[in-house]
Every structure is written in structure tokens, then in C-alpha cells.
């Protein structure tokens, strides 16, 4: 009895140690599971049954219900399938997906921004190659706008299913413009800055701007970089393996942004959230607001905007500076999309769910329900959308190219250097030179890691 | 500094404890002999300054909290237009909306994790305290040393390895992850707390129990544990305060929205309801009130626990 | 013989605690040292051994130094408030205040310590908000518009604003600890001093301060180690921004681990935190050793 007691306690201790040692494996070694997506046909699941896990970044109560209802509809059509949908917020998603990836718990379907963010998963072998089902020549692929498909293309292969089209526009309050004696949308950045001064004289905050998490400013910089830096240089710099950021256009872009803050906004912006800034545009205190087309719904009566504004706004692209060296036809924006986990046991089923989500009918529902533009061709009609949304769609199709969000197109180090630098520019603690020095250092570090 | 708990100093030696004096020291100004008037004036000024300071601090502490409660009844317009005043009417709907935005869910999670970790922590700590104090386990000194070392190890430092470890054990992203960690990291402190109290229980008590034919196990459950009740309550309260407010582990090791505890959940909610000020205030109020009420109910015990447990 | 066996059996009593401690506290801390010698991230297929590279990175990383500086400032400011100010507060409470009121005041001062840091942090984010915040409105009301700031949005004020919130939250807590210490002072000391004609201020310095020395030591240790482990406050209020001006070691670790995809570097920062807290702990042991501990 006494003996067993003693040996039992040692056994417990030994197992505990064994458990601890088992965890001693090298950190983060991915073991591509057998039977992953690579080895199965994606075109059609043998039997529509099983569980699909899916994580999105659409926890916002404005957007969440759409994804809930579409997944529910799929479950109803296929009773043997359960979709475990988890939705987190935009900001938390960035940590969350990394945590899931590091812990080998990547869901079957996960959200991704276009650019380096998506490429991270591709490089690590965590994204299924969907070329066979969504390539530009496939039946499914043909239903998308080509530019949207291309945004998720890496080395000629397709890795993502675009779910929405999103571009950044400067919305303006028409009656504020009239009151300040401005005849129409400014044709150049210089003109815009002049208009800001007029609006301030008329008692308005020219541009509502909240930069609490740093990304709203990064969208300005994305657009200004595209205007000031030649496209080839830009592509080279945004690639972590070749980034240098030495072109003078970058410094110019930051200086132009500084002008916008000085004349059109305030140095308090870092302490205000983007949404709180938006509130000032909605209630008519601010004359303009730089926002994404996916947010347009918030400016309509249906989205809860006050009538005074809802009937009275239009939008323009952030005007390009005169004589800019870059592409004046570039538009900040990108499709967002979903990727399929390369190690998913149910990859074919996951693809089927995404096909369902991007049928003409569900794409139209996306536009009708939450006012987003879908990359599925012919999905926005006057029946399911409002005028500004349709003209945004027309404008997006006119754009020379998408300037993908700076914080997702390039690697995290560079994005963070920009983020933190620009926050300093707003509050007046950093100059454009400081910012670019920081970015160049980060790019060098990223190059070392990529190399 | 967070409101975690003070580190108990491992001191078996014990002076007689002065129980908190409740008698008032009469505040008659010292009667001087020579400069009575001047001194009296000085004392008056002192008192005035002292009272003023105390009153100011009351305002500084209470006003933000009251503002939070008032704002949770306001409309969005009112928060902007009339930040100082009382709400125009009591909008209980804000609380309903905060509840459905997740506060209730987070609240339940916090209660679950907190109560489970109180149970495990106090139980395991009481066991090990008993083993160390009464049964003179082999290597007692070494074990005590390990516990003492455990007092100084910061959770943040273990973050990244724990991440892998919890996945290996398949408890990542579950209540268990938090319960296990809250227990493991708090055992050293709680053990010392209970141990200090147990040492003071006279050995005759055990001897009497043994003479009655109790095994050590029976003596523990039937005699020692009941005698330790006051310190167990304090330990439970301190653990509650810790687990209820813990943030780092709750942030990193729980990824499912439905399993989040209050501290992290509230932050999440803030990023979802960025411009719905009153609902956010309502959520904060809902999160803060239970703990305040619990403290008001248990404050006497709590203070005694502090008095007993530290710096003896 | 049987007593020896009994003693071995008694190990079962400490086993659960010991296993948990070794597996979840000691092993990860040791493993962290190993991990800090690799370069790896959440997506990496295979970690590469880089030796002390991560530590070199830290040495040349300006934000690492900013973070360390912020932790230090946090510690110093907290010492002033949590040790100096709250001892005075405790003495005032004990010296002046009528018994019933004393209990009420103690309770009020303690309340902020009971609400979680997250609640306090979000609440203060509102107070500091440039648009709805009471702080700016208060300054405006008394005609100090020039002092208004976007408190959490400017590098020069963000960290200070966080520290201020933290003091608000902790002062009642430490004051209560001091009250406990003051109540342990035998009454005769104060009586004797009174007979000698010492006024309240003299008595504070000649009786109270020396007599609560042990509690003071404890609070200093608590405050300093707490200041180097700060995470929650910063995460909730600024997440380290703007321009990384309010990064502390904890948040910088988190940022590198989960946002900059540099787990190895994050482990190296964790090691630095470990060394600092260990040093503080060692001081604590030395100090308490001086008070004749018998094992």
C-alpha cells in the first residue's frame, strides 16, 4: 500500500515531466498533415458532410448578420454540414489569425487582406492553391471581376476568393461646400488644401479624421505614395525581398499628408477613433471624410445617417497633386477575400461553401444587406443599392490599378514603421525625413529576414 | 501596479499581532506650554489642509465612477452635449444592448474561470501548506525555495513558451487554459499565505487529533482546515481579485469570442461599438458593479486577510 | 522506518502544487531562454538558430529603449505616489478621521482597486477623449484652453496619462496597506511622543515612518516590480501608440510576437523582463533575510 502510493506519485511526476518534454519540440515547426488540400480534388466534395471552421473579421454588428445568414442558409441546404463561424473585429483579427496559425489551429476558411498579408500564408504553405477551381479560365473564376481575382494572385496562382471590393474615397457634404462658396470637387491636392481653408473660415472642420489605431492615416499615405512614386519602384519597394524606400516621392507623400493635417484636420487625430471622426461628418460639423466604400452605407438614411447628410453627400477620389511622378489613375483599395487552409481535411467542402457565398444571388444580397460592392460581376443593381454605390463601382472599374492598403501590401515591420512614424507626423513630433529613415531601417530588416 | 496581491513574507516567527485598533485616539490638540496660540493655529491649518486633501481625493475617486454610471443612462447626444449633468431619463435599454453585445457572456465566463480557479488554488495551496508545515515532507526546504522562486516569476515572461505548451496539452482556447494558469501562477503566494497561518496553530491541536485516532488526512479535513477558515476566505478573495482582472493570459490564450473573460471582452466590445458611447459606459458599469458590491460585502474579511497575511 | 515512509507518502500533499508549478511556471520560463536564440514566427516552417542575434537587435532597437525608459518612469512616479503620498494619506486617515467616517473613506479610496484595469483604462480613455472627455472640458471651463490636449493621442502626453490613471487606481490600495501597518504600531509610542509635546507632523516623521518600515519595503517591491510588468493599462488605452511613445516592455513583447511576426525577438524581450524582476526579487529576499527568517 505504502509502496504503491509512493510509486504512484512518482508516476504522476514522471508523466508531467514527459508532457513537459514533449512540448520541447522546436518552435513553430509546421507539419503539413497528410490528406491536406494539396492531395484532394477541390472541384467537388465527395459528400457534403462534416464541419467547416471559418473565421472572419466582420464582428461589427453592421456586417456580422450577413455572414451569419449566408452560412445558416448553406447549413439548411446541406443538413449534414456544420459551419462553425467565428467573427472578430478588424483590429483583433490581426493578432488572432497569427495565434491560430502559430498554434496549428488555422480554420478551414479564413479572411485575408490582399498583398503581403495573404502571401505570408502562401509562403508558409498554409493557403490552398485554388487555381484549379477559381483560376481566370474556370467557370467560377469567370464570374469575378478580373482585377479582384488578380489581387489574390501570387506567382501566377490563385490563392484567394475575393468577397468584397473596397476603395477609399473622400466623401463630402454638398451643402457645406455650397456654404463655403466652393463650386465643386477640387481637381488637385493643392486645390483641396485651398478649399480646406475656405471651409475652416466658414466654421467647419474641413476633414473629419480619427487615427486612433494608425491605419486611417496609412490609407492617405497609400494613395499619396501611388501618386508620387513610379509604379515599378513602388512594386519593388513593397516586396519585402527588395524594399529600399529611397525614392524622393515617399518623402514628398508624407509632406503632402502633413499639409492635409495642418490645413484640413487637427493634430489631435491620434486620440480620436476613426468612427468618432466619422460621427463629426455625419452630424454636419465636418465637411469631408476619407472613408472606404464599404462604409458608404453608414452615410445613407438606411444606415442611420441624419437626413440632412444622407440626402446631401457625394464623393471623389483624394485628388492627385499637380505634376506627380506616380500614377494619377491609381486608386487606394483592394478586394478582401477568403483563403482556404492548405491543411484542411475538408478543403473541397470549404471551396463549396465559398462558391455558395459568391453566387450571383448571395453577392446581390451582400450589396443589398450591408451596402458592400461585390467582385461578382453584375451583382450591384439599382434595385439593391444606392446611387453613390453604383457610381463607386463604375469608378473602381475605371481605375488604372489598385493601390493595395499599405499596411497589408507590405510586410509588418515596414507597415509598423510607417504607422508609428505617421502618428508622429500628425502630432508634430516627427518630420517626413524621420519617418522615411525609420521605414528604410525596417525595410532593411525585412530584407534580411526574407533573404 | 495592479491590484494583485501583496507578496507575503515567509516569516514563521511571529510577534503578537496587534489587532486593528478600533479605539479612537482622541484628537485633543496637544496642550503646549509656551507657544500655545501659534501651535493651535498651526494645528488648525494642518487639519484644514488634511481635510481638504481627503475631500479632494474622494471627489477624484468618485467623480469618474459616477460619470460612468450617469453616462450609461444617457443618449449619444447627451454624452456630447451635457457631459456633466444627470441623464434626462433612465435609459435602461443601454444595459440591455450592452448585455447582448457580449457583456453578459463575458461575465459568465469570468465567473466560471474565477470560481474554478479559486477552488483549485485554495485547495492545492492548503494541501501543500499542510504538507510543509505539519508533515515535514522530504526536501521541504527545496520545495519552499521553489515556491519562493515562483513568487517572482512574471507571467509575461512565460507567454511564448506557454503558447506552445497549452497547444500540446490541447487546452489552448478553453476555460482550462486560464484555470490551470491562474492556479499555477498563484499557488506560491497562496501557499505562503496559508502556511503562515497554519504555523500559528498550536501543535497540541494535531496531537489531540492523532490521539483520537485521526490519520493526517482526517486531521487535515476535520481539524486544521476548519481552523484556517479566516485565511482561506482571505485567500479566496485575493484570488478572486486576481482572476477577475487578469488580462495577459486571457488575451493571448483565449481566441474564441464566446470564451473571453470580462477584461478582454470589454476591450473587444470597445472596438466593435466605437461610437455608441452610452452602451459602452453601460458595459463598463455592468462589469464594475459586481466586484464593488462583493468588496463592500466582504471588506471586513478582506482587510483582516491583508492584516493577517502580510508583513508580519 | 515507518515514519520515513510516512514522510515520503506525505509528498503526495505537495505534489499537485509542485507539478503545476514545474510544468506551467518553471518550464516555460526556462524554455523562453532557448526560444530567444532562434528566429521564428507564427508562419515559419522551420526556426533558425541565430545565437544572441535577438539580444543584439534589442540593444540597437530604439523602441526597446523607449519601452525600458517608460517602465522606469512608471516605477519612479509610482514610488512617489504609492509610497510617499499614500503613506501621508494613511496617516491622515488614522490621525484625524472619526472612526465611522474612517471606514467609509477607506472603502471609497479602495474602490478603484476593485474594478478591473480594463474598466479603469477604458473609463479614462473617455475622460481623456478630446471630444467628450471631462479633462479637456474641465480645463476649458476654468479657462485653460491652452492646456487642452489629445491626451492619449500625443507622444508627449500619452504615457503620462496612462501613469496618471494607474496612480488613481492604486493609491487607495497602498494606503490601505499602510493603514494596516500603522494600526500595528503600539499606541504607547504615539502617546509618549504626545507627552513630549510632539505635534502631528513631528510624530509622523519620528514615529509613523520608522515604524512602518517593513510595510514600506514591501510596497516598494510591489510597486517597482508591478511597474516593470505593466501591460494591461497600456494595451487598453493606447496599445503602445502614438508613434510607439507609450510602449512598455510587455506591450513591445506582445507586438513583436503577434503583430511583427518576430517570436524570437519577443522571447529575448521576455528574458530582459525576467532578469529585471529577478533582480527585484533578489533584493526582496536580501531585505527579508535581514529580518531573520528561519526556514
Automatic annotation (TrEMBL), chain A:
Q: Which SUPFAM superfamilies match?
A: Periplasmic binding protein-like II
**Top-level taxonomic group:** Bacteria
Leader sequence range is 1-22
Q: Which UniProt keywords apply?
A: Signal, Transport
Q: Which Pfam families match?
A: SBP_bac_1
tRNA-binding among the record's keywords?
A: no
User: What InterPro entries has UniProt attached to this entry?
Assistant: Bact_solute-bd_prot1, SBP
Q: Does the keyword Signal apply?
A: yes
Which PANTHER family does this UniProt record tie to the protein?
ARABINOSE-BINDING PROTEIN-RELATED (PTHR43649), OSMOPROTECTIVE COMPOUNDS-BINDING PROTEIN GGTB (PTHR43649:SF29)
Q: What is this protein called?
A: Raffinose/stachyose/melibiose transport system substrate-binding protein
To which species is this protein native?
Pedococcus badiiscoriae
UniProtKB/TrEMBL annotation, chain B:
Q: Where is this region: Disordered?
A: 1-24
Query: What UniProt keywords are attached to this protein's entry?
Result: Cell membrane, Membrane, Transmembrane, Transmembrane helix, Transport
Q: List the Gene3D superfamilies hit by this protein, alphabetically.
A: MetI-like (1.10.3720.10)
Taxonomic lineage of this organism? Bacteria, Bacillati, Actinomycetota, Actinomycetes, Micrococcales
**Do the record's keywords include Acyltransferase?**
no
Question: Per its record, how is this protein called by name?
Answer: Raffinose/stachyose/melibiose transport system permease protein
What main location does UniProt list?
Answer: membrane
CDD domains attached to this UniProt entry? TM_PBP2
Q: Which residues form the ABC transmembrane type-1 domain?
A: 107-298
Q: Which family does it belong to?
A: Belongs to the binding-protein-dependent transport system permease family.
UniProt feature, compositional bias: Polar residues: 14-24
Record Pfam families? BPD_transp_1
Q: Which GO terms describe its biological process?
A: transmembrane transport
Mode of membrane association: Multi-pass membrane protein
From TrEMBL, chain C:
The UniProt entry, under InterPro entries, shows:
ABC_transporter_permease (IPR051393), MetI-like (IPR000515), MetI-like_sf (IPR035906)
Keywords (alphabetical) are: Cell membrane, Membrane, Transmembrane, Transmembrane helix, Transport
CDD domains named in the record = TM_PBP2 (cd06261)
What's an example GO cellular component term for this entry? plasma membrane
Name the Gene Ontology biological process terms: transmembrane transport
Q: How does it sit in the membrane?
A: Multi-pass membrane protein
Q: Where are the transmembrane segments?
A: 12-30, 73-93, 105-128, 158-180, 218-243, 263-287
Q: What Pfam families does this protein map onto?
A: BPD_transp_1 (PF00528)
Domain ABC transmembrane type-1, chain residue ranges per copy: 68-284
PANTHER family under this entry?
A: ABC TRANSPORTER PERMEASE PROTEIN, INNER MEMBRANE ABC TRANSPORTER PERMEASE PROTEIN YCJO
UniProt lists the family membership as follows: Belongs to the binding-protein-dependent transport system permease family.
Q: What is this protein called?
A: Raffinose/stachyose/melibiose transport system permease protein
Amino acid at each position: 500500500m505504502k509502496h504503491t502510493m509512493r510509486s504512484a506519485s512518482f508516476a504522476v511526476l514522471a508523466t508531467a515531466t514527459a508532457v513537459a518534454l514533449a512540448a520541447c519540440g522546436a518552435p513553430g515547426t509546421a507539419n503539413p498533415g497528410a490528406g491536406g488540400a494539396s492531395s484532394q480534388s477541390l472541384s467537388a466534395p465527395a459528400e457534403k458532410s462534416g464541419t467547416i471552421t471559418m473565421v472572419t473579421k466582420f464582428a461589427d454588428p453592421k456586417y456580422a448578420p450577413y455572414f451569419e445568414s449566408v452560412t445558416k442558409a448553406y447549413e439548411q441546404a446541406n443538413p449534414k454540414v456544420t459551419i462553425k463561424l467565428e467573427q472578430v473585429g478588424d483590429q483583433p483579427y490581426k493578432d488572432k489569425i497569427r495565434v491560430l496559425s502559430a498554434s496549428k489551429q488555422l480554420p478551414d476558411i479564413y479572411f485575408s487582406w490582399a498583398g503581403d498579408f495573404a502571401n505570408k500564408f502562401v509562403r508558409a504553405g498554409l493557403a490552398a492553391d485554388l487555381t484549379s477551381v477559381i483560376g481566370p479560365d474556370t467557370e467560377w473564376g469567370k464570374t469575378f471581376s478580373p482585377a479582384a481575382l488578380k489581387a489574390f494572385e501570387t506567382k501566377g496562382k490563385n490563392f484567394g476568393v475575393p468577397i468584397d471590393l473596397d476603395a477609399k474615397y473622400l466623401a463630402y457634404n454638398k451643402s457645406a461646400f455650397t456654404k463655403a462658396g466652393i463650386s465643386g470637387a477640387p481637381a488637385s491636392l493643392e486645390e483641396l488644401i485651398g478649399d480646406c481653408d475656405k471651409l475652416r473660415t466658414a466654421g467647419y472642420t474641413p476633414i473629419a479624421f480619427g487615427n486612433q489605431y494608425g491605419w486611417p492615416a496609412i490609407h492617405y499615405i497609400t494613395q499619396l505614395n501611388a501618386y508620387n512614386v513610379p509604379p515599378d519602384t513602388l512594386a519593388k519597394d513593397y516586396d519585402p525581398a527588395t524594399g529600399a524606400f529611397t525614392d524622393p516621392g515617399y518623402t514628398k507623400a508624407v509632406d503632402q499628408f502633413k499639409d492635409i493635417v495642418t490645413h484640413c484636420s487637427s493634430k489631435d487625430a491620434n486620440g480620436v477613433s476613426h468612427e468618432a471622426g466619422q460621427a463629426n461628418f455625419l452630424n454636419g460639423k465636418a465637411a469631408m471624410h476619407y472613408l472606404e466604400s464599404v462604409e458608404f452605407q453608414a452615410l445613407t438614411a438606411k444606415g442611420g445617417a441624419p437626413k440632412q447628410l444622407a440626402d446631401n453627400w457625394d464623393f471623389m477620389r483624394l485628388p492627385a497633386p499637380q505634376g506627380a511622378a506616380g500614377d494619377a489613375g491609381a486608386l487606394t483599395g483592394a478586394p478582401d477575400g477568403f483563403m482556404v487552409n492548405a491543411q484542411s481535411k475538408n478543403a473541397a467542402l470549404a471551396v463549396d461553401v465559398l462558391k455558395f457565398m459568391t453566387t450571383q444571388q448571395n453577392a446581390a444580397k451582400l450589396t443589398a444587406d450591408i451596402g458592400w460592392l461585390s467582385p461578382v460581376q453584375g451583382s450591384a443593381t439599382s434595385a439593391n443599392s444606392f446611387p453613390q454605390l453604383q457610381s463607386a463601382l463604375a469608378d473602381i472599374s475605371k481605375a488604372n490599378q489598385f493601390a493595395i492598403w499599405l499596411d497589408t501590401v507590405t510586410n509588418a515591420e515596414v507597415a509598423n514603421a510607417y504607422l508609428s512614424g505617421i502618428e508622429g507626423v500628425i502630432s508634430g513630433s516627427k518630420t517626413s525625413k524621420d519617418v522615411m529613415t525609420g521605414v528604410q531601417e525596417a525595410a532593411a530588416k525585412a530584407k534580411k529576414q526574407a533573404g | 501596479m495592479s491590484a494583485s496581491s501583496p507578496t507575503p513574507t515567509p516569516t514563521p516567527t511571529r510577534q503578537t499581532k496587534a489587532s486593528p485598533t478600533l479605539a479612537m485616539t482622541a484628537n485633543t490638540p496637544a496642550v503646549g506650554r509656551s507657544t500655545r496660540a501659534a501651535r493651535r493655529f498651526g494645528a488648525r491649518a494642518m487639519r484644514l489642509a488634511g481635510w481638504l486633501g481627503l475631500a479632494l481625493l474622494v471627489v477624484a475617486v468618485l467623480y469618474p465612477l459616477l460619470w460612468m454610471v450617469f453616462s450609461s443612462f444617457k443618449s449619444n447626444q447627451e454624452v456630447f452635449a451635457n457631459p456633466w449633468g444627470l441623464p434626462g431619463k433612465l435609459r435602461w435599454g443601454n444595459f440591455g444592448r450592452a448585455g447582448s453585445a457580449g457583456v453578459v457572456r463575458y461575465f459568465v465566463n469570468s465567473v466560471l474561470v474565477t470560481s474554478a480557479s479559486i477552488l483549485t488554488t485554495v485547495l492545492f495551496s492548503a494541501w501543500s501548506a499542510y504538507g510543509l508545515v505539519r508533515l515535514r515532507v522530504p526536501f521541504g526546504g527545496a520545495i519552499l525555495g521553489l515556491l519562493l522562486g515562483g513568487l517572482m516569476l512574471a507571467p509575461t515572461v512565460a507567454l511564448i513558451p506557454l503558447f506552445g505548451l497549452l497547444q500540446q496539452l490541447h487546452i489552448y482556447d478553453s476555460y482550462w487554459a486560464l484555470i490551470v494558469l491562474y492556479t499555477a501562477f498563484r499557488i506560491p503566494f497562496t501557499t505562503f499565505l496559508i502556511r503562515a497561518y497554519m504555523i500559528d496553530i498550536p501543535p497540541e491541536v494535531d496531537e489531540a487529533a492523532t490521539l483520537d485516532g485521526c490519520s493526517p488526512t482526517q486531521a487535515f479535513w476535520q481539524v486544521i482546515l476548519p481552523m484556517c477558515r479566516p485565511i482561506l476566505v482571505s485567500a479566496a478573495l485575493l484570488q478572486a481579485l486576481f482572476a477577475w482582472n487578469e488580462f495577459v493570459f486571457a488575451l493571448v490564450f483565449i481566441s474564441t469570442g464566446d470564451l473571453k473573460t470580462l477584461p478582454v471582452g470589454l476591450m473587444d466590445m470597445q472596438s466593435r461599438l466605437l461610437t455608441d458611447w452610452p452602451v459602452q459606459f453601460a458595459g463598463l458599469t455592468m462589469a464594475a458593479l459586481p466586484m464593488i458590491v462583493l468588496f463592500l460585502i466582504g471588506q471586513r474579511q478582506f482587510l483582516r486577510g491583508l492584516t493577517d497575511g502580510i508583513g508580519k | 522506518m515507518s515514519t520515513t515512509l510516512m514522510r515520503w507518502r506525505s509528498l503526495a500533499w505537495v505534489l499537485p502544487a509542485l507539478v503545476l508549478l514545474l510544468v506551467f511556471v518553471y518550464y516555460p520560463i526556462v524554455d523562453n531562454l532557448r526560444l530567444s536564440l532562434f528566429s521564428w514566427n507564427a508562419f515559419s516552417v522551420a526556426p533558425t538558430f541565430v545565437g544572441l542575434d535577438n539580444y543584439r537587435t534589442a540593444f540597437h532597437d530604439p523602441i526597446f529603449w523607449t519601452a525600458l525608459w517608460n517602465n522606469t518612469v512608471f516605477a519612479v512616479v509610482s514610488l512617489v505616489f504609492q509610497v510617499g503620498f499614500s503613506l501621508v494619506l494613511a496617516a491622515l486617515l488614522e490621525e484625524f478621521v472619526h472612526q465611522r467616517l474612517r471606514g467609509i473613506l477607506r472603502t471609497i479610496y479602495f474602490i478603484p482597486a476593485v474594478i478591473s484595469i480594463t474598466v479603469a483604462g477604458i473609463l479614462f480613455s473617455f475622460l481623456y477623449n478630446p471630444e467628450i472627455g471631462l479633462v479637456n472640458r474641465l480645463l476649458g471651463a476654468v479657462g485653460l484652453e491652452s492646456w487642452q490636449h489629445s491626451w492619449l493621442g500625443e507622444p508627449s502626453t500619452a504615457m503620462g496619462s496612462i501613469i496618471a490613471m494607474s496612480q488613481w487606481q492604486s493609491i487607495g490600495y497602498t494606503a490601505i496597506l499602510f493603514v494596516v501597518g500603522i494600526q500595528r504600531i503600539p499606541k504607547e509610542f504615539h502617546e509618549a511622543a504626545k507627552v513630549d509635546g510632539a505635534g502631528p507632523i513631528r510624530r509622523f516623521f519620528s514615529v509613523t515612518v520608522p515604524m512602518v518600515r517593513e510595510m514600506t519595503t514591501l510596497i516598494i517591491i510591489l510597486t517597482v516590480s508591478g511597474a516593470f510588468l505593466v501591460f494591461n493599462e497600456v494595451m487598453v488605452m493606447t496599445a503602445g501608440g502614438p508613434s510607439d511613445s507609450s510602449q512598455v516592455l510587455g506591450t513591445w513583447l506582445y507586438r513583436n510576437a503577434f503583430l511583427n511576426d518576430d517570436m524570437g525577438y519577443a522571447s529575448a524581450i521576455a528574458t530582459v523582463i525576467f532578469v529585471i524582476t529577478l533582480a527585484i526579487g533578489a533584493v526582496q529576499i536580501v531585505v527579508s533575510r535581514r529580518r531573520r527568517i528561519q526556514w
